């Protein structure tokens, strides 16, 4: 049994979708979550900047002696290859497990990917899916405004602005007759009800956060790193900027109030070596 915590990081609060799944499917594990709310979004940044941010996020989590680190961020998973390669601990990113799930789910070999600009431009999902099945057609759409919708709690299924933005974004995917859509950013599952309503019941949505958690669980089990089954896992939350509506957004995304458990972090103190 390994009592060390699991470290999870994201560009903001979207990664709480992964934490929510982790609390459900790995209830005995302690979790340290870092949301870089002071620098969100990552998806519109340059590759060099994303690499730097990822290294600083990882350096912070490594201070806790994490037994596994998860990048609950599609942008980091797609772009920050050097930062990921330098991690000494077992590491889980979201692109590979989500791609595997999508390939398994598709019925007509047409998969769509919704992601940040950086994720789509990297071609990471296309490469991962084609490596699994070169016959699959992959369509990607950049959805830069969706992160802001989530970070501002505009996720109600009846929100007219969110519905119209999503309609415009996924129109090319519907036109290409995809039957599976990867929500290629952990912010996006929080908009899944709207996306599903717009895309239709015949389209399967792949939740990157959930798939990453299943991957993490398999790694921990294989390497005998799971915590004692009698232990009730606890989660600690850290953010780089406590925005005015943080409490409301976190409560909506996670389903519980964590306002009294969120700690501010000055990343200047956690520069990578």
Describe the structure.
The radius of gyration is 18 Å and the shape is globular. Helix 1 links the parallel strand 1 and strand 2 (31-35). 43% of the residues lie in helices and 16% in strands. Strands 4-3-1-2-9-10 form a six-stranded parallel β-sheet, sandwiched between helices. Helix 5 (95-105) packs across helix 7, helix 5 packs across helix 11 and helix 9 (160-175) packs across helix 10. The chain is α/β, with parallel strands linked by helices and 273 residues long. The model has no long low-confidence stretch (mean pLDDT 93).
Give descriptors for this structure:
alpha/beta, four-stranded parallel β-sheet, 273 residues, globular, six-stranded parallel β-sheet
Distance between the termini: 30 Å
Give the low-pLDDT segments.
Answer: none
Shape: globular
Q: What is the mean pLDDT?
A: 93
Beta strand %: 15-25%
Query: Number of helical runs?
Result: 12
CA-based gyration radius: 18 Å
Helix content: 40-55%
Q: Strand sequence of the main sheet, in spatial order? A: 4-3-1-2-9-10
Question: What sequence of helices (H) and strands (E) makes up the elements?
Answer: EHEHEHHEHEHHEHHEHEHEHE
Characterize the largest beta sheet: strand count, sense, and whether it forms a barrel.
6 strands, parallel
Structure classification: alpha/beta
């Amino acid at each position: 049994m390994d009592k060390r915590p699991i470290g999870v990081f994201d560009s903001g609060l979207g990664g709480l979708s992964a934490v929510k799944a982790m609390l459900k499917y790995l209830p005995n594990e302690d979790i340290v979550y870092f949301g870089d709310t002071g620098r969100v979004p990552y998806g519109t940044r340059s590759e060099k900047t994303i690499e730097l941010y990822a290294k600083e996020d990882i350096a912070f989590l490594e201070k806790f002696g994490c037994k596994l680190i998860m990048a609950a961020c599609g942008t980091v998973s797609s772009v920050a290859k050097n930062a990921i390669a330098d991690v000494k601990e077992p590491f889980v990113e979201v692109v590979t497990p989500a791609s595997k799930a999508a390939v398994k789910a598709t019925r007509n070999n047409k998969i769509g990917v919704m992601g940040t600009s950086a994720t789509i431009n990297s071609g990471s999902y296309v490469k991962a899916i084609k490596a699994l099945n070169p016959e699959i057609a992959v369509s990607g759409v950049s959805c830069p405004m969706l992160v802001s919708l989530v970070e501002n709690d505009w996720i109600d299924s009846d929100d007219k602005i969110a519905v119209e933005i999503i309609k415009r974004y996924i129109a090319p995917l519907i036109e290409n007759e995809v039957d599976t859509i990867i929500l290629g950013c952990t912010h996006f599952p929080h908009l899944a009800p709207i996306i599903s309503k717009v895309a239709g019941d015949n389209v399967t949505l792949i939740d990157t956060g959930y798939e990453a958690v299943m991957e993490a669980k398999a790694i921990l089990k294989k390497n005998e790193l799971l915590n004692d089954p009698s232990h009730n896992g606890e989660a600690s939350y850290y953010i780089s900027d406590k925005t005015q509506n943080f409490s409301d957004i976190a409560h909506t995304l996670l389903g519980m109030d964590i306002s009294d458990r969120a700690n501010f972090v000055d990343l200047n103190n956690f520069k990578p070596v």
